[in-house]
């Protein structure tokens, strides 16, 4: 960790005495299971069993001013990514070197070129975005990444604030609840899906969730489905894998997407963001079939590409940002959250970036064009990784300055973890959810809709809950 690492004050005095700790942990585990803050086990998968999702026992402190900044900035970031996604020249030029060496990106671009050549059937897009931040040692937030596909944990995160309210009340700290910001991520994300569905004006059509063959993070997905069923009983949700869509999907006479004879007018991808979701040509054909349809996609293929790390790195350049954002005040607000991002392409100063990384690897993270966690290379592992790559292979990666966030102290509660859990040092990453609907020249809907907090051990590099190294949390706002 950085020499200037600071500690954030816990929301309550820790450690707790052991009898009280054991009592409240047991209650919190039951609360989590009974309210759906749960997942299926990867180790012992059982369709009929759930484990509570790893969680932090008490909410983690987060700077109030920076939380508010992230919330207020989200509609602007929605607009930025929306503009990027609708600029085909920029996307294809920016990803041209990556396309040559990264097979997955190349396959996505092949679909994009195909629908561009044919004429995009549905010009309206729906995006459910999540912008992730770490505070740095001075507490100012810096963006880690922006997610444009399968931005998860809106469902379960909505449960964390009530859970922490319960825990704090049990511990006699009801006065602290005013510092837990309200979180309506689930309803906000679902409402946007239904807004897109309404635009299609076809009452018999369904919303299609594209899912993995085996879904471990089942509660998070089903919460969306159940919320839609309860709030909008007339809107059906169907779930299919890419493999199933390849077998039973087809286009109607007006390019409607028909799945087993049911029209899907909105498609929400919870799978398809990593190579492992495509077993062969059948799954790629299914993705192309969806893109060719008049269904509103979340995300469309161009939105998926707009979320790549290479695009994120390009947007860190002031002249590129100006291409998409006209207002200097807005440009400054966005630039303020960016950390150092460097191309590894030879013709874009890649050799200089590589020299930087080799001279001081602890300052950097090496990132590929992948979502889903567990793909990055950190610190001392970077030199060997870079030296093993050809100049061309480097184009599939970007170099990002590492953010050294303040630490907090808390209890991480995991299924089959130690009892009582030890007091540990933690790092928290804030995600802000945004929704935007529109075409290239017309934004119809643009909102910030909620947040999530993922917290990991300060000694851990990766922080994904679904990937197994992080824990669910909620922010406790401090001044």
Concise structural overview:
GO terms for molecular function: ATP binding; glutathione binding; glutathione synthase activity; magnesium ion binding. 37% of the residues lie in helices and 24% in strands. The protein is an alpha+beta fold.
Please characterize this protein's 3D structure:
The chain is α+β, with helices and mostly antiparallel strands. The chain has two domains: 18-339 and 403-477, no CATH class; 341-402, Glutathione synthase lid domain (Dna Ligase, domain 1, 2-Layer Sandwich). Helices cover 37% and strands 24% of the residues. The chain contains 16 helices and 21 strands. The strands form five sheets. Strands 3, 5, 6, 17, 18, 19 and 20 form a seven-stranded antiparallel β-sheet that branches. Strands 7, 8, 9, 10, 11 and 12 form a six-stranded mixed β-sheet that branches. The chain has a four-stranded antiparallel β-sheet with strand order 13-16-14-15, with helices on both faces. A hairpin with a 4-residue loop joins strand 18 and strand 19. Helix 1 (18-35) packs antiparallel against helix 6, helix 6 (154-170) runs antiparallel to helix 7 and helix 7 packs across helix 8. The longest helix has 22 residues, at 64-85. The model has no long low-confidence stretch (mean pLDDT 93).
